[in-house]
Amino acid sequence: MKLAILGMGAVGRGILEVLDGKELGLTVTGLADSKSGLMDRDGIHIEEVLAAKRERGFCGDKYISATDIVEQADYDVLVEVTPTDARTGEPATGFIKAAIGRGKHVVTSNKGPVALHHAVLQSMARKHGVAFRYEATVGGAIPIMHTLEHGLAGNRVLAVFGILNGTCNFILTRMAAENLTYDQALLEAREMGYAEADPTYDVKGIDAAIKLVILSNTIWKRNVKLDDVGITGIDMLTTDALRLAEEQHCTIRLIAEAVPERGILRVAPRVLPKNHPLVVDGSLNAITLETDMAGEITLIGKGAGSRETASAIIGDVLFIREMHVRGH
Ligand code: HSE
User: Fold this and answer.
1) What's the whole-model pTM score?
2) What's the CATH class of domain 147-302?
3) If you average pLDDT over residues 153-181, what whole number do you get?
4) Pocket of ligand 1 (CB under 6 A)
5) For residue 263, how many other CB atoms are within 10 A of its CB?
């Protein structure tokens, strides 16, 4: 199966490294970063591209753009992993629509287009008989979308509670465990590649809120928007607040919650007992689903990181190969 990949940040590089190291039967025929692009219908040499990116900061030909790749490359699946613009969803939404319009499947980690245009993109994909998948947008490596779609099929989901931002969780863990200041912990989170290109998305709770919107619209088809979410971030939290919580055998976590029947849709720091199922450490995410048949299910896993996000992307790509390309 042939892939065109847009974006060579932490996620794009993670995907290329995985493809370079594993025999998955996937060939990259188009690739673009923010400054250049490459097309080769026989397959791009991944090691060379990674080396070029490391050495000179861009991967290919400066006269080939992401748009050229989307419109001209020979591929089955567009892997759209450019940075999120939550306000406009662009340019990613345009790339995704153009690929679907060409009858190509799309897999994305980009939260902007999904949070803003989920219903439109899904219906466009259905019309063209292709898949539009976005497992990597929520919970990093946690297979939350596959779980909802398959494992919990037939269940009514009553509520969702979760730690949906790895950067905030990492910062809160490091502040409590090592007495680091907020700024030191944020710097570490950025160095680890967890934070968004603009980390204010993370620490102000916006990234978690975007993921809550994506989850809500996937589960309940409600078409909620970012503005519908009540948001408080962790950027004002002090080491003292964390120490006070510690003294009560508790800790503070940024919790996203959606309970439609009670009109709850919010992201805010919460004091939780240390043995609460959602209290996970470091860049981990945790998601609890309350359902009518299965009861309560909590999924825990790496919520951010290059290889972890690549896991979700590759899972979607291989799922598409099973369902569509092999004609099941
Ligand atoms: N910045 C995000 C996080 C990356 O920290 O969770 C994964 O979406």
Assistant:
1) 0.94
2) alpha beta
3) 95
4) 140, 165-167, 194-196, 202, 207, 303-304
5) 6
